[in-house]
């Protein structure tokens, strides 16, 4: 496998021994910080509306392959995140011993429960929900942290914030790197302090009613070089890969590059970003309605996406379902869950952005070592006269 062939995958169940991330294709010589990985994992834990599970997990990461002395070796990297709650689930989730307790037979509306049972032929919903759980995204965040540490070498920085929760919408969008401080200090990861207060009140109302809430988050990537992706092949379009990866996040149901849906209601003269040039900035756009991508290729402007997240399917006041054994109408199984996970989903979104961009940077600049990749990058910048 070529070292420029960047790939990743995850393993583990929600109440199993651990969640594990595997990343292959990072160049050698890249300095990796365990502190940064754990910082990203802890940011995923936070957010107003999160459930009791996040109070249990410490989100400590252990790198078990691919590094020596804090530097990548060019070989696959494995990161293990132990589930502290495993000690309470060994009799139900042991890999070899027969599970104790009654099977879960009441699939939840809005979850993968029933479709998973039908697909794989199970008679216990737990066989589905353990992997379908959003707990898996902890591994994505760990993998994404490796990717974003690689991207930082090329000047790429990624931020996210919550744009809306339920009907409450923020009036502010991310404009600069300095916005990160305000976002991280917000319980709902929102720049708009007025909207933040209303979001918290709405989450409290949902909790009291035993209900859940969804919303929209945005992710921006500053400093992305023009020329990532390709219009020559549908599968290599950068926007298509971003949509694919973002919609793989549990509960993510809508994707927008820039203000795509709002732009669809306007004339072309109001939407398309005019191209200008000066000696200091080089080529640049006066606006960024395209979200940093044109024709499937990054154009040098900030990449900006928005993602719609549905309300969490597990409700404290459950909806009706059917017992798969008795075929009787009952109330759905209740699994410990959040009231609102949009702030956490935004952090997962950062990871997905980093993983996609890392793949395209590896493809374009190659190199077995980080030094080779950076040399190719600098040569490219010189050829296209792009001002960072």
Describe the structure.
It is built from 13 helices and 17 strands. It is of the alpha+beta class. It has a single domain (7-384), classed as Chorismate synthase AroC (Chorismate synthase, AroC fold), CATH 3.60.150. The strands form six sheets. Strands 8-7-9-15-10 form a five-stranded antiparallel beta sheet. Strands 1-2-6-3 form a four-stranded antiparallel beta sheet, covered by helices on one side. Strands 4-5 form a two-stranded antiparallel sheet. A hairpin with a 3-residue loop joins strand 11 and strand 12. Helix 1 packs across helix 6 (137-152), helix 1 (34-45) packs antiparallel against helix 12 (342-365) and helix 9 packs antiparallel against helix 12 (342-365). The protein is globular and about 70 Å long. The model has no long low-confidence stretch (mean pLDDT 95).
């Amino acid at each position: 496998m070529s070292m420029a062939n960047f790939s990743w995958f995850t393993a583990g169940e929600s109440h199993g021994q651990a969640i594990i991330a595997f990343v292959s294709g990072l160049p050698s010589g890249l300095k990796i910080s365990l502190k940064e990985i754990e910082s990203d994992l802890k940011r995923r834990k936070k957010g107003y509306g999160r459930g009791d599970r996040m109070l249990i997990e410490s989100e400590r990461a252990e790198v078990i392959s691919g590094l020596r002395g804090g530097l990548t070796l060019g070989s696959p990297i494995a990161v293990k995140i132990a589930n502290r709650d495993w000690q309470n689930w060994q009799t139900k989730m042991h890999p070899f011993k027969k599970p104790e307790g009654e099977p879960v037979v009441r699939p939840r509306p809005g979850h993968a429960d029933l479709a998973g049972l039908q697909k794989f032929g199970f008679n216990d919903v737990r066989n589905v929900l353990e992997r379908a759980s959003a707990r898996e995204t902890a591994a994505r965040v760990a993998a994404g942290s490796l990717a974003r540490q690689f991207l930082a070498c090329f000047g790429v920085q990624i931020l996210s914030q919550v744009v809306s929760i339920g009907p409450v919408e923020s009036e502010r969008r991310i404009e600069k790197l300095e916005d990160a401080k305000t976002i991280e200090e917000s319980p709902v990861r929102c720049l708009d302090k007025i909207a933040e207060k209303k979001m918290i009140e709405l989450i409290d109302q949902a909790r009291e009613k035993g209900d859940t809430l969804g919303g929209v988050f945005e992710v921006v990537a500053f400093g992305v070089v023009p020329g990532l992706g390709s219009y020559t092949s549908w599968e290599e379009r950068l926007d298509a890969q971003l949509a694919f990866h973002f919609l793989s996040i549990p509960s993510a149901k809508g994707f927008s590059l820039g203000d795509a849906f709002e732009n669809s209601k306007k004339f072309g003269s109001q939407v398309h970003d005019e191209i200008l040039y000066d000696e200091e900035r080089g080529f640049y756009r006066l606006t960024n309605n395209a979200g940093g991508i044109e024709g499937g290729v990054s154009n040098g402007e900030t990449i900006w996406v928005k993602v719609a997240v549905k309300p969490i399917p597990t409700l404290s006041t459950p909806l009706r379902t059917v017992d798969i054994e008795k075929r009787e109408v009952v109330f759905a199984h209740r699994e410990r869950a959040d009231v609102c996970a949009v702030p956490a989903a935004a952090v997962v979104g950062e990871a997905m952005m980093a993983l996609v961009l890392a793949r395209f940077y590896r493809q374009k600049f190659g190199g077995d070592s980080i030094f080779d990749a950076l040399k190719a990058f600098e040569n490219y910048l010189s050829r296209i006269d792009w001002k960072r």
